[in-house]
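help with this.
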Amino acid sequence: MTNLDRRMELHQILCDILGSAYVYFQPPESIKLRYPCILYERITGDSQYADNKAYTFRICYHVTYIDKDPDNEVITKLANLPLCRMDRSYKGDNLNHDVFILYY
């Protein structure tokens, strides 16, 4: 499976969690976002080694859920994804931002 295939698989998982298609991968500033939404971007990768060879590689993403509602169930659904942890929350532009770190 290519990295693009894996990212498209992740994209579909995020759309299913959100319940809409307002999921954006590294959107340019010219895109007008619709809320609630999920933004995600690649930040790094992680390889696991054995016998001096990489045997797994996972890309790490920042996944940001943006909504007016600070207590939406999407937060719990994202936090329950494998290899995902909540990093921080903040409020900006009168919207709540919940940032997760996800290896996929």
About this structure: Residues 3-103 form a domain with the STM4215-like fold (CATH 3.30.2000.30). The first strand starts at residue 23 and ends at 25. The CA atoms of residues 65 and 85 lie 13 Å apart. The chain has a mean pLDDT of 94.
